[in-house]
Design a protein that fits this description.
Number of domains of chain B: 1
Mean pLDDT of chain A: 93
Number of strands of chain A: 25
Distance between the termini of chain B: 18 Å
Order of helices and strands of chain A: HEEEEEEEHEEEEEEEEEEEEEEEEEE
Largest sheet of chain A: 5 strands, mixed
Order of helices and strands of chain B: HHHHH
Strand content of chain A: 35-45%
Oligomer: heterodimer
Largest interface: A-B, 24 and 27 residues
Mean pLDDT of chain B: 94
Radius of gyration of chain A: 21 Å
Shape of chain B: elongated
Low-confidence stretches of chain A: 12-25
Number of domains of chain A: 1
Number of strands of chain B: 0
Radius of gyration of chain B: 17 Å
Chain lengths: 369, 148
């Protein structure tokens, strides 16, 4: 009797596991996590190399190399000096779409000093010799103008479009929020440049007198996330106290900051009397109160958004007509401030947790239909 | 009213006065910044936003009261050892206490805590609010005239 009950129970478990694996929609209910690496100091972003190594940027100005679950003693050398203060430091890392041929990577970081600093984007060749990686042929391909004071709101997320051009988010610098509405500077913008720093001829403001030609969209606050899925550019940004947003970015659009927002200043005062204004885009998703979105990955027709304040990962389902519905928190066993998320070469999700004991965690077991 | 009551009443009145004036100044500064980027703010919207920003008064009032306690204590000591006009000392103390607090908060938080004080004019307007708060404290907390 006991044996038959046990047998039936085991069959039921096997059947449920089988059904779970055959589910036609991505489910986040069944998953497991594997800690790939720990003891990362203020990690901000990660990138996978074709040989299986994983590069992790640390805001202090280091790039760690993870190989087979171990952090190599030798990181990447010849990393440019960064301005490490406040939200500044070494930020994003991304390999070129043609990395296999050109070994080119891109790094964003806070450049300068307290009284004059900016978001900068460089390209470099990543050379390797066994355990040793180093950057060479470093080229500064973009520095936001003008330099600003204060170590906040750099943004700094990089993405590459299908034509090879690069997108970079540039924050409003916190105390300079009105500059996000002006086209004569780079603060509060998404900029688009070619891999060598030149400006693509089809940028929206390239022919406008007085406008910075690199500008692709404007009216942003502190947008630390870009994700491209099915040719659509998704972005999210930190509002102040409330007013976190998810947007679809189209060239030339004005996303409203600081003229429209559902958030308030941290002290409770109004940033603006308006939540709508002619010529300004409404967010597809608004989080009030704030979750502090930090990164985003497009995966299986969903956007996965990591957050710092809510200390969570949220799933946003994207329908065929680009409607976005917030499914709420997923992968809730992952605790703490979550800084970065990506889809790895093995088609699983990887996340970086923030802080002095940051971890790189792989999320396994999701159906891949 | 005894001195024990006049001083706390004076402090509360001073903090409330300075906070209301500071809040109004800050809102006008934020609106001016919006207008500088061609945003239209009609009078009714301006008034509504000004009143709406009084939501920060509990926070701002508490902060102002704390910095006034420090500033007015220093003012009382200065007058005791250096002499001079009592009201003038409290006016100077009120202005410098608010400005110093905002600057210290900016240095610690690495952001400007009140958007309306991002400009020098905005910061000085909070100094004016603090000065008026100091004047209110001096008048309420002062010794009453002796009747001959």
């Amino acid at each position: 009797m006991k044996t038959s009950t046990l047998t039936v129970g085991l069959l039921a478990i096997l059947l449920s596991l089988s059904l779970s694996a055959q589910h036609t929609d991505l489910t986040t209910e069944h998953y497991s996590t594997t800690v790939i690496a720990s003891e990362l100091s203020q990690p901000w972003a990660h990138e996978f190399l074709p040989n299986g190594d994983i590069l992790v940027t640390e805001r202090g100005g280091h790039i760690k190399v993870i190989r087979d679950g171990l952090i190599l003693n030798t990181g990447v050398s010849n990393v440019p000096e960064v301005y490490y203060a406040g939200q500044g430091g070494l930020l994003d890392i991304m390999k070129d779409a043609e990395f296999a041929n050109n070994k080119r990577i891109y790094l964003s970081y806070a450049f300068g000093a307290a009284k004059g600093n900016a978001t900068r984007l460089i390209s470099a060749k990543l050379e390797s010799n066994n355990d040793n990686y180093q950057l060479s042929e470093i080229k500064n391909i973009f520095t936001a103008s003008p330099l600003k004071k204060g170590p906040q709101h750099y943004s700094g997320r990089i993405a590459q479009m299908s034509d090879g051009s690069l997108l970079l988010t540039v924050g409003d610098g916190f105390d300079y929020r009105e500059q996000a509405q002006k086209l004569d500077n780079h603060l509060g913008k998404i900029i688009r440049i070619n891999h060598d720093g030149s400006v693509p001829p089809d940028n929206p403001f390239i022919s406008r007198a007085g406008a910075k030609p690199e500008i692709w969209s404007y009216g942003h606050r502190n947008h630390q996330s870009l994700a491209i899925g099915n040719g659509v550019v998704y972005q999210n940004e930190h509002g102040p106290k409330g007013g976190d947003e998810v947007n679809i970015i189209n060239p030339g659009n004005n996303y409203g900051w600081p003229v429209i927002t559902y958030g308030r200043d941290y002290n409770g005062a109004q940033v603006t009397p308006y939540t709508e204004y002619p010529g300004m885009q409404q967010p597809l998703v608004d989080w009030t109160p704030s979750i502090a979105p930090s990164s985003m990955a497009f995966y299986q027709n969903s956007l996965y958004v990591t957050s710092l304040a809510e200390q969570s990962i949220r799933q946003l389902r994207v329908s065929a007509n680009n409607k976005i519905s917030d499914q709420g928190k997923v992968f809730e066993t992952i605790k703490g401030r979550v800084r970065d998320i990506s889809v790895g070469p093995d088609n699983t999700l990887y996340v970086l947790t923030d802080g002095d004991q940051g971890q790189l965690i792989q999320i396994n077991g999701l159906s891949n239909n | 009213m005894s001195s024990f009551i006049r001083k706390p009443v004076g402090l509360i009145a001073a903090a409330l006065t300075a906070s209301i004036i500071g809040s109004v100044f800050s809102t006008q500064s934020v609106i001016a910044s919006l207008q500088s980027i061609d945003v239209e703010v009609p009078l009714a919207t301006r008034l509504s936003m000004t009143v709406g920003d009084f939501a920060i008064l509990p926070m701002l009032g508490g902060l102002t009261a704390i910095c006034f306690v420090v500033g007015f204590t220093v003012a009382a000591l200065c007058r005791r050892f250096l002499g001079g006009d009592r009201t003038a000392w409290y006016v100077i103390a009120g202005a410098s206490a608010l400005i110093s607090t905002l600057l210290i908060m900016k240095a610690v938080l690495l952001i400007t805590p009140i958007a309306g004080t991002r400009t020098l004019l905005g910061l000085l307007s909070f100094g004016l609010a603090g000065a008026i708060g100091g004047w209110v404290f001096a008048k309420i907390s002062g010794q009453p005239e002796r009747v001959q």
